[in-house]
Design goal:
This protein is mainly alpha-helical. 73% of the residues lie in helices and 0% in strands. It starts with 7 loop residues before the first helix and ends in a 30-residue tail after the last helix.
Length: 138
């Protein structure tokens, strides 16, 4: 038996069609890469603006966090001052009660009180002393 011959033109047609397909894919890829490069160039200002906006947003978020921390510190100080004012108010109430008792006692005193008389005291002169000590070295 004789072997059937395969037609060579089918292999050539298959190879040529694969080559044409590969060339068309390469062309499409080149066109698509060019389009994507152009699109990226067109979007570059927007990307830069977005990066600037993102940086501004980060700075703003940091400022908000700092303001929140300052607010918390101020609120804590306010709470400490408020508790101190409560203590001060209690002390002032006690002082007011003491002042009221003193005023009541002062009202009960007579308007004028006789003062004791002071007599002149006599002063006697100390006697003269003639003594020497050996402390001075003489």
């Amino acid at each position: 038996m004789t072997e059937p011959r395969r037609p060579l033109h089918l292999a050539v047609a298959l190879g040529v069609s694969a080559g044409v397909y590969a060339a068309s894919l390469a062309g499409v890829t080149t066109l698509q890469a060019g389009q994507e490069a152009a699109l990226a160039a067109d979007r570059a200002p927007a990307a830069d603006a977005l990066a600037t906006l993102r940086a501004h947003n980060d700075r703003l978020a940091a400022q908000v966090e700092a303001a929140a921390a300052a607010f918390d510190a101020a609120a804590g100080g306010y709470r400490r001052i408020a508790s101190g004012l409560d203590r001060l108010d209690r002390h002032l109430a006690k002082l007011g009660a003491t002042v009221a008792r003193i005023e009541g006692a002062a009202v009960a005193l007579p308007a004028r009180a006789p003062l004791p008389s002071v007599s002149r005291a006599s002063v006697s002169v100390a006697p003269a002393v003639h003594a020497t000590t050996g402390a001075s070295g003489r």
